[in-house]
């Protein structure tokens, strides 16, 4: 099976590439903006026609899109997360390769959830920030493309290589600095937030399974269990051997209303850009996935527990002490 991977050098893409390369039946080609890509191409700025010609030459059976941006202003997020996917969909429609598309989405597309609830794929998306809006627009483009396509809505990915700007990445860095300075007290904020943390290697397994399946539509990828960031901090402290006290500077930040005007995607993006959210991912105080669809349609279940993921995050942070 010939697979074209977009975004192979990103946090998720690196592990997806490793997983696909471990399958002897897969012949992998990586396309991206970096020098380490097999083929250099800017999805956000390249033309659908140029990508179509490449698809016709390579003739992949599956295209996996892990490319995109998680940070930046609304315009940059739209360009890298929405316009880029429009280019991919248009090129696949024009091409004669007939490839299946596996699009990696995110839980930020759903926005805030009711505490205690599990979010299923039929939930009405109400993204609380420009990142979620840009990813939701990409999902709608994929679902409306008429292609053989599946969108994996990944909840909160963690594990080796976790970005420093993510909640657990920031937590590990704060703990590293405290240990390096010999501080016996670590003061942190926002520890009441609860997220469904799923290991990036399990996400890569899900992408591989989706590539081989006939599943279409949206499929949640998570563990089905929300974990309070305060509890994750306690586990990380145990893994790191940090004996100091953990103090929360404040309680959960207040939840802002998300009654943004819905007359157009542009007006929503402008509103969200101008309205700072107390939750950077726009997901409120709680998110937990309903993962029954992944089990039933992909035959996928998470295997790696949070303590193992945190141990790997700490291993990288400890190397900087």
UniProtKB/TrEMBL annotation:
Natural source organism: Streptomyces californicus
Bilayer-spanning residue ranges: none
A Pfam family it matches: Epimerase
Gene3D superfamilies, alphabetized: NAD(P)-binding Rossmann-like Domain (3.40.50.720)
Top-level taxonomy: Bacteria, Bacillati, Actinomycetota, Actinomycetes, Kitasatosporales
PANTHER family attached to this UniProt entry: DTDP-D-GLUCOSE 4,6-DEHYDRATASE-RELATED
Residue stretches making up the NAD-dependent epimerase/dehydratase domain: 3-222
InterPro entries: Epimerase_deHydtase, NAD(P)-bd_dom_sf
Family: Belongs to the NAD(P)-dependent epimerase/dehydratase family.
Name this protein carries in UniProt: NAD-dependent epimerase/dehydratase family protein
């Amino acid at each position: 099976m010939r697979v074209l991977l977009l975004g192979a050098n990103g946090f998720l893409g690196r592990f997806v590439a490793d997983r696909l390369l471990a399958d002897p039946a897969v012949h992998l080609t990586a396309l991206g903006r970096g020098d380490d890509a097999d083929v250099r191409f800017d999805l956000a700025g390249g033309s659908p026609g140029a990508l179509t010609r490449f698809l016709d030459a390579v003739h992949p059976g599956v295209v996996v899109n892990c490319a995109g941006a998680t940070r930046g202003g609304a315009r940059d997020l739209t360009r890298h997360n929405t316009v880029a996917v429009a280019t991919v969909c248009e090129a696949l429609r024009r091409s004669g390769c007939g490839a299946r598309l596996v699009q990696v989405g995110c839980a930020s597309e759903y926005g805030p959830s009711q505490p205690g609830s599990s979010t299923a794929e039929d939930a009405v998306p109400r993204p609380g920030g420009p990142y979620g809006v840009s990813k939701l627009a990409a999902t709608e483009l994929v679902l409306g493309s008429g292609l053989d396509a599946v969108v994996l809505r990944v909840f909160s990915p963690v594990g080796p290589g976790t970005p420093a700007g993510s909640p657990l990445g920031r937590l590990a860095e704060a703990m590293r600095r405290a240990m390096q300075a010999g501080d016996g007290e670590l003061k942190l904020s926002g520890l009441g937030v609860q997220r469904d943390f799923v290991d990036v290697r399990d996400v890569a397994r899900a992408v591989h399974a989706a590539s081989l399946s006939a599943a279409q539509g949206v499929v949640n990828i998570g563990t089905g269990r929300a974990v309070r960031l305060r509890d994750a901090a306690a586990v990380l402290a145990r893994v790191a051997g940090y004996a100091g006290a953990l103090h929360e500077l404040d309680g959960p930040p207040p939840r802002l209303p998300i009654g943004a005007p819905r007359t157009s995607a542009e007006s929503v993006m402008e509103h969200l850009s101008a309205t700072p959210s107390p939750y950077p991912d726009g997901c409120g105080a709680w998110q937990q996935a309903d993962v029954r669809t992944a089990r039933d349609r992909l035959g996928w279940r998470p295997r790696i527990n949070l303590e193992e993921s945190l141990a790997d995050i700490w291993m990288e942070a400890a190397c900087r002490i």
